Amino acid sequence: MVRKIIHVDMDAFYASVEQRDDPSLRGKPVAVGSAKARGVVAAASYEARTFGVKSALPSVTALRRCPELVFVRPRFDVYKNISRQIHAIFAEFTDCIQPLSLDEAYLDVTDNKRDLPTAWATAKAIRARILEETGLTASAGISYNKFLAKLASDHRKPNGQFAVTPEMGAAWVETLPVSRFHGIGPVTARKMQSLGIQTGADLRAKSIAFLQAHFGSSAGWYYAIARAEDERPVESHRVRKSSGSETTFHNDLIEAGEIEAGVLRMADDVWEWCEKAQAFGRTVTVKVKYQDFQQITRSRSYPAVVDSKAALHAASLGLIRSVLPAEKGIRLVGVTVSNFEAQGQSAEVELPLFG
Length: 355
Known about the structure:
CATH class of the domain at 242-340: Alpha Beta
Site (Substrate discrimination): 14
Oligomer: single chain
Main location: cytoplasm
Domain UmuC: 5-185
Largest sheet: 5 strands, mixed
Subunit structure: Monomer.
Catalytic activity: DNA(n) + a 2'-deoxyribonucleoside 5'-triphosphate = DNA(n+1) + diphosphate
């Protein structure tokens, strides 16, 4: 049976919420985040995107690109509440919902509660309900698998929808640049381009042996998506794979004691979540970003779970000390625990703030 899958993606979600709630911001380039020197753009309105302003961009760079940019402090409690409204709307149509973030989700509507005959009609009805309930617009991609549905949701943004049918799927993928493919990031896209792989057609022309030689364990995924194949089901309950916290320092740090203190604060944040969720992992990772934005990680896996704050402190300190003394200023550190044992609330659906 051909599945009917919809990928719903809110349009510039955080920024659109701010423009909805403050009419003076409408039509203006808006960035949600902090305008401080160490600030980062969390989200950008479509007016701001025309200047090249996008999420994760340093605020100073964003202001350089768009001097008229208006910064608004994020209101995550508001975004979470609206996200709950949106997910309640999804539940009016199907029980098979896989959230990816606060503002996007996969829906399997093969059997939908409204008995609508097509996924196209279902997506249109969902988008209308979201607009009616929240005053916000959403875009939707409709297809027979998750990979194509996610690609399609970008095709008519904002406030549109696009369908990829089984008859057109493989041929459509061949026309697209590989940089648009979900699961192929900027670094991998550049590597593919250096190997002469610019489009889906170029990727499809490569043998599985060629892809394994150059991309290792990811070869199978690339081989499949070049043929518009994706057998992953929409999973309504996903196990959370990790818990992490990171911070950007006000000034680049070089002193070992200050850097270690920052790592311990992040470890405390992570442990608070682990203890509350009763989810404990065996792998600890420390992330470091230097003043020149070079980024490194150090990880260690243990035979048993890290089951105390003291053990997490010890693991985190051991990892950060492997890169100390710092050769150059450090602007960011982070701590992540992963490789969870299934217990307690670790099987809760994860709704990360940034998708």
